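Hi C.,

You asked whether I'd gotten around to modeling the 590-residue construct. I have! Everything is below, sequence then structure, no commentary in between.
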Amino acid sequence: MKTKNDDLQILRKLMFRLLPIQVLLAASGAVNGIVSSYFASNHVGLKAMGAVGLYGPVSMFLGAVAALIAGGCAILCGRYLGANDSKRLQEVFSLDLVLSLGISALFTAVLVILPLFHLTGIFTADGELRPLFDRYLLGQAIGIVPFFLSNQFPTFLTMENKGKMTIIASVIYIIVNLALNFLFVGRLHMEEFGLALASSVGMWIFMAVEAFHFFTKKASLKIRFTGIPWKECFHVLKIGFPGAASYIYQTLRGLIVNRLLETYAGAAGLSAFAIANNIMSIFWALPTGMNNVSRLMFSVAAGEEDRQSLTDVMRVMFRYFIPLMCAVILCIVTAAPLLTSFFVRDVTSAVYPMTLSGLRILPLCMPFSIVLMHFNSYGQVSERPVFVNIASLLDGVVFVAGFSALLVPFLKNDGVYIANVLNGVGTTLYILLYAWAAKRRFPKDLEELMVIPKGFGVEKDERIDISVKSLQEVVEVSRRVQSFCLEKGIDRKRAYLAGLSMEEMAGNIVEHGFTKDDKDHSIDIRVVHKNDKIILRIKDDCIPFDPKERNRIGADDDPAKNIGIRMVYKIARQINYQNMLRLNVLTVTI
């Protein structure tokens, strides 16, 4: 008998299997900041860190637009993945790349024009810092196109079970970025322009490695510039904007905080904040990766209209992700002096204590941020723009900038660090208040905290879930499926065929899939009664197995070969198969 704990453990294993790829992707971008911080502070001078810090809001804004496209398309594709609609999956993939290419070309032009025509005064009034920032901006402009495209590929590579390509690309990027910084900054003394150029060239290589798979014959999704579903543009932007809004608000927050630090803490405060942020960015890769995995799982669950899976994603976050993050925070705080001295060697410098303080305070806001990220991703998937926009505004501007404005004049950099922690408390209270307002009472369980609509999916009595882990359990599948169908008023013939179909397919997986390796496998069966139709979904974690191909082999060769699969194809109204996220997913409508 399948239990809720079985579901949760299967989901947990899948999410943790996908997590390293997403973390490494996020970390590869953060490594750029770490490497830039090291070479800027040790080879160019601490003043150069001010230029890196000034670029932070610009980078955040560009990330917002890239996230808008990536987030909107990822959520749409997750739904189509859950619905087994491969045609629309391909169309949205093509749309994603065309949009990214066009918008990134536009921003490249803007980043070239700003320094060439001396229009960067909006970022700083410091006459010494401005020319450093201009040179840094020109170098970054070269990498805008690959930055946008490389943010799109990971989700699709994960869907294609090619997540390792992202790992390979990330490792190559880190090596190239480090080598080019050593060459451009350490040897050729190209200073701020060299810092940015190293990152840009590395980003082109990173993107090329990721894109390679989609030009191969093995790729299910192909890079095409025809058949673009332009009508989906508005839908993509509508779904993606709430998540991207967070980055947009953080851009505004960055501009405000930078100006406050420049006014009350000077260039030293700005440099210390930039160093602390860049060091922390490598650790922020963990919450970002967690959220990216969960967003995909939310999308798939929405496509399947699966209430249980929606709440299970949140349970994984609370039970496993947050404790893991707390352990990492303890390590960061403990290692704060060592991390600071690696970038600021002069302990007598004013920058040193302000950086050290940041590494001791900023990590405390990370568990709160994980909670907000997950509720925002769920809000995007469930299309609740009001909730997400208010949460993003509070997180991005109101709390951090507001508390910083109150505290920075007295506490300088510490005021910003404390403001981030207070922001986490405030946004968590907002999530609780939103659920209370929607339900008119304090939420009593996770479904109420998430405010899942009553009409979402099918009721529990309109579906059954069966887990198969051995051949002995296969025989029981047919009886349970038939009994369920008869209880729902389905005629005996269809009930019998539904049970027989599931027994044949489950038995085939156990016989051929379970024996291909030494791993423990399980089959997740769901039977849904909806609009007088019986929908059978069977999911397993064995090697890829396309029953359509086996059906063709049987038809062209021995008539007795694969007879069970051929029978299912004859009696089913519709059959869809795909192998995504390293899972075989077969949907049969009787």
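If it helps when you're writing up: Strands lie at 463-468, 523-530, 533-540, 574-580, 583-589.

Thanks,
B.
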